[in-house]
Amino acid sequence: MQISTSAFLNAQLTLHVDKKVVQESASKTFASKEEATLLTPNTNQSVKEVVAKLLSSLVDEAKSKTAVLDLLKNGAVFKNLGSFSSDLKTLVDVLKSDKNFEKPLLFLQNFQKNIDVVDGEILKKQVQNSGLFLESKLANKFLDEPIHPTLKTLIAEVKEHLSATNKSSLLAKEVATVLNALQSPKEISQSELQANLKSVLGLLRQSVKEHLSFESTAPLKEAYGVATKLESVAKQIALITSKIENISNSPEVENSFVAQVKEILSTLKQESQKMQVAFQNDKTVSLVMGEIITQLDSLLAKESFLRPIAVHESENSIEDQLKMVASRIKQQIALVDPQSAKQAQYQENSALLDQKLQSFIKPEIFLNHAITQKLSINPADMEILGDMKGVLTHVSETLSSSNTPNAKEALEVANKLLTQIDYHQLASYVSSATHLYIPFAWDGLNGGSMMMKQTKEDHFHCQIDLDLEKYGKINMMLLLSQEKYIDITIATQKNELKEKVSEHLQSLKQALNEVGLIIGNVKLIDYKEDKMAKNDYFSDEQLNFGINISI
Q: What is the DSSP letter of 187?
């Protein structure tokens, strides 16, 4: 989705109007007279007014992005923006006594994150609805391409996949109608999009089931599927090995994995023997199957599948051997029984498309359907009300005309929160990066930040800085490579915290294994106050973080 610079900035300027929040002397904020003249038409300004003037200067091209970024980093007026988490808690507490804010309160409370009960999937979704992207959502209503390009490609893939599927004419017509609706250039609402995607998912599953019922039995399809399963299991070897290193009952886990692999290998051997008998008149096929059976016997004789073979440098690892024998079986099936391979590949592709479609169907994570109905919330409003800035804008506008006792106090806090969001939005634009906040809260946390950056094609860095009341500061640097290997450096300011981290390090490793990550190097070092010194954690990388999250 492309949005012009002026449209983006003007959308932020005109979306809502706030009153003065935190009075600061702007003349003390900027070093040069030129900056003061541009940004200080009066002697006292709120942070909101300063942000608005910076936005105006960008729209008018009076200031460069570099100059504005420098002002945001060094301006004294921005040093005391406050804590988003604590300000949000204050607003929730103030509004609790007013029944007029029952609906927005539910959304605001859902955005508060207690670290003890945080859900990863919900957190991911709510980061996307952090307020940073609200203007983009509003602008999207006026675009000719309401459907995301990736989704458009997926719909085309589904259409192509189903075009060769045997199904009844009635079902074929129904599928065509829904797919054409999704590919139509006309405006489509989010609710319509979600309804159509759910229909496509249901029709895809129905079509696949019907297609397979029409197909003749493919004798080697099961063998092909077992070989595919062996390939999948082989990919888990590194993760299983990492898990065994980090848990106490490692023999049980290893024995279970070995038993699983041997069961698959035994099944493949049986299927291979059947193929050898069935094609015994074809010497080439019989010879190849004999070689595959020998390979399978060799693998079945092994006591473990978790460590690579290192007898000879040229010898392949266990993982490579498992993948190789699975690949040979699949290739041979494709040669002698193309129909079996075709059906198995069809089912694989169907399952993959099923997963992709599910990823585009949004779960109801903010409020369930029953609460939505109870509060009489219009589904069309969910997109905006599910966005922190959308909720705060609604609250601010309502409080502006309210005569309730706490309205003035609540309005100041709401506007302060909106100002903090505006600051992050402006910082994101001028730094060509992403600055946002997550309202994490737990006892003993003074504040913190998290920064992420992709440094190479398959390398991602994450730096987490926390300031704890009792234990001082802690800095964590994470390196994720090849989507599954993770290296960690943890720096603590106080020895007491270092001892705590050491005590629970094994639990951390186990938790990372549970989400599919393989632990590499883990280091504990002393905390470094100098930000540039933190680059020493990964000396071969130049870390200029692109995603900055305030906590």
A: -
Residue 302 within a domain: yes
Q: Tokens 């601010």 belong to which residue?
A: 396
Residue 393 lies in a domain: no
Q: Convert the pLDDT of each residue in 223-234 to its tens digit.
A: 888 899 898 888
Q: What kind and span of H or E run contains 481?
A: strand 472-481
Same domain, 365 and 416: no
CA-based torsion, 66, 69, 73, 75: positive or negative:
positive
Ordered DSSP codes for 27-82? GGT-SSHHHHHHH-SSSEEEHHHHHHHHHHHHHTTSS-HHHHHHHHHH-GGGTT--
- From the list 142, 148, 137, the residue with the least C-alpha distance to 393 is 137
- Measured distance CA(243)–CA(510) in Å, rounded: 7
Asked if residue 320 belongs to a domain, the reply is: yes
- The verdict on 502 and 544 lying in the same domain is yes
CA-to-CA dists, residue 158 to 44, 162, 201, 442, 449, angstroms? 59, 6, 10, 45, 41
170 with 240, same domain: the answer is no
pLDDT of residue 29 exceeding 50: no
Residue 258 belongs to domain spanning: 227-336
333: tokens are 């099936």
Cα torsion 26, 27, 29, 31 to 10°: value is 150
Structural domain includes residue 361: yes
Alpha carbons 403 and 386: distance in angstroms, whole number: 27
Residue 119: exposed, middle, or buried by beta-carbon count in 10 A (0-12, 13-18, 19+)? exposed
Q: Report residue 488's pLDDT band, with 50, 70 and 90 as the boundaries.
A: very high
* Two structure tokens written together for 293: 């059976």
Coil vs helix vs strand at 219: coil
Q: How far apart are CA 128 and CA 343, in angstroms?
A: 39
- Confidence (pLDDT) at 528: 77
What is the total count of domains within the chain?
4
pTM: 0.63
Q: Where are the beta strands (DSSP E) in 307-387?
A: none
Residues contacting residue 541 through CB under 8 Å, at least 6 positions apart? 455, 459, 461, 479, 535
Q: What share of the chain is helix, strand, coil (3-state, %, to 5)?
A: 60, 10, 30
The answer to whether residues 498 and 468 touch, using CB atoms and an 8 Å cutoff, is no
